[in-house]
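tool=predict chain=A
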Amino acid sequence: MPDVTVYGHDGGPLPATVGPATLLVGGARHLADVSSNAERVVMGDVAAAVDRITDHDGPVAVVASGDPGFFGIVRTLRRAGVDPVVRPAVSSVAQAFARLGLPWDDAVVVSAHGRDDGLRRAANVCRAYPKVAVLTGPGADPPALAAALEGWRRRIVVASRLGTAEERLTGPDGDWTDPNVVLVLAEDGAAGPAGWLAGGVRMPDGWALPEEAFHHRASMITKAEVRAVALAHLAPVPGTLVWDLGAGSGSVAVECGRFGAAVIAVDRDPAATDLVRANAAQHGVDVRVVTGTAPEALADLPDPDAVFVGGGGPDVLGAVLDRRPSRVVAAFAAVEPIGPTAAALAAAGYTTGGAQLQANRLTDLAGRHRLAATNPVTLVWGSR
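tool=predict ok
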């Protein structure tokens, strides 16, 4: 393998020469700033450029934006068997937050490059977290990201060509240019408390929380034991969007949000949606709450990755299946809907399963103990 040195470029001066390099690789705008008689390869097709690097007999210099070890060329070179020397510059994400005077140790950073689902995953992270930097890419430009975030209260800042004479900070509809990084900030997410773990992605300090952890009315809440199994089949993680239909207290919605998923809770009862908001605020998660009757209320919502159906009839399930989520979990207190639901899931191409859950909880009885039964609930689930 050739000797490869990777130089980061943050808009500041590059080395006037690149030493003994006989091959110079980088973007056209970067290479224009370097004086060298070396052979030049403009890095449009990254795979082809890496092949040329690995085939070269002699020292190679690669010029890349910002910190090339942060969502950059260093990973690709390592995968190709190259062990480069790296001379990083300041990353575009660090520069963007610096321009706004914000700390970013609590920010989530998402790359929308090189994935068919890059926009969807990036948008879901922005829906769930209060401070996100998005490295944009084809099909995931600032206007597309802003459109995906309609319905969420977010401030969007596009930082273009940082460190150059063409640097600018705009909104998604402003005069932005490529390359850029987009900062998506919740109204209360500009300067959160200092933490001990950088990166912003949170994991819950427990799940299947007791019912006492939520505001609810007359025990109308998905019991903890049922919630635990439902969460296992919903698989909420950062980058996914979960619908909680017939949300009630919103306990399922809030638990999914605590795992970092974006969440929309739907209920026709305004008193219930008020409870969802209160529970989301209490647990520090951002749940979008929709007051309306399914399936009509679902028409303008973004497509989900997983859906918990806590209420509604066959028309609601049909509307859910029309959106082709990867996972569906439906809960029933009555037995009649169980068979038709499993049949509908199977007919739509889902692998189905289910279980009836009844917990017998240990309680005190005059200094001794007894088992107190909760009402049985049947979960039917499907995945594809």
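The radius of gyration is 26 Å. The longest strand covers residues 154-160.
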